[in-house]
Amino acid sequence: MHKNMREMEQYSEDQFVVKGVYKGAQSEAMLLFLMPGQEMPPHPHERFEVVLVPQQGLGVMTVDGAKEVDLAPDTLYYEPAGHTFCIRNTGNRPLRVLITLIRVEAADQTSVPKD
Fold first, then answer.
1. How far apart are CA 28 and CA 17, in angstroms?
2. DSSP letter at 111?
3. pLDDT over 90 (residue 75)
4. For residue 113, what pLDDT band results from cuts at 50, 70 and 90?
5. Phi, then psi, of 77 in degrees rounded to 5
6. Residue 115 near residue 83, CB atoms below 8 Å
7. In this predicted structure, what is the pLDDT of residue 106?
8. % of the chain surpassing 90 pLDDT
9. Cα dist from 77 to 2, 25, 43, 61, 98, whole Å
10. Residues 46, 81: contact at Cβ < 8 Å?
11. What is the pLDDT of residue 105?
C-alpha cells in the first residue's frame, strides 16, 4: 500500500476531520485534522495501544482527564491500552496528527501455554 498523506488533507470549519490511512488485522492508522480551537472529545481506547505523530501545528492531548501532553511536529507519543484521550488544537494553524492504533488482547483472552 502506498498513500500520499498530504493529498488526504481535509479541514472543516465546523468540526474535526478523521480520515483512514489503512486498516490491518491488528492495527489501523488515521489522520486527524483540527482547525485552531477545535477538539476531538474524550474517548476511550480500551483495547488499543495508541501512537501519535504530529505532522503540523501544535496541540495538547489530555489522557484520562488529568495528564496533558504537548503535541508538536517531529515528536512521537505512545500510550498503552486502557486510557481515555482528548486532543485539541492549541495553536493558530491547522493541526495534523497521524494516529496508529494497535489492537491488544484483553487480559482474559491471552494465550495460555499448552501442555
1. 16
2. -
3. yes
4. very low
5. -125, 135
6. no
7. 62
8. 83
9. 23, 22, 17, 10, 11
10. yes
11. 78
- Residue whose grid cell is 504537548: 70
Per residue in 4-40, pLDDT (tens digit) is: 888 899 999 999 999 999 999 999 999 999 999 999 9
Cα–Cα distance measured from residue 86 to residue 62, given in angstroms and rounded to the nearest whole number: 5
pLDDT of 107 over the 90 cut: no
Q: Phi/psi class of residue 66: alpha, beta or left (left: φ > 0; alpha: ψ in -120 to 50)? A: alpha
How many Å apart are CA 112 and CA 93, to the nearest integer?
49
Q: How far apart are CA 49 and CA 10, in angstroms?
A: 25
Residue with cell 483495547: 47
Percent of the chain that is helix, strand, coil (3-state, to 5): 5, 50, 40
With CA atoms as reference, report the closest residue to 20 among 74, 87, 100. Answer: 100
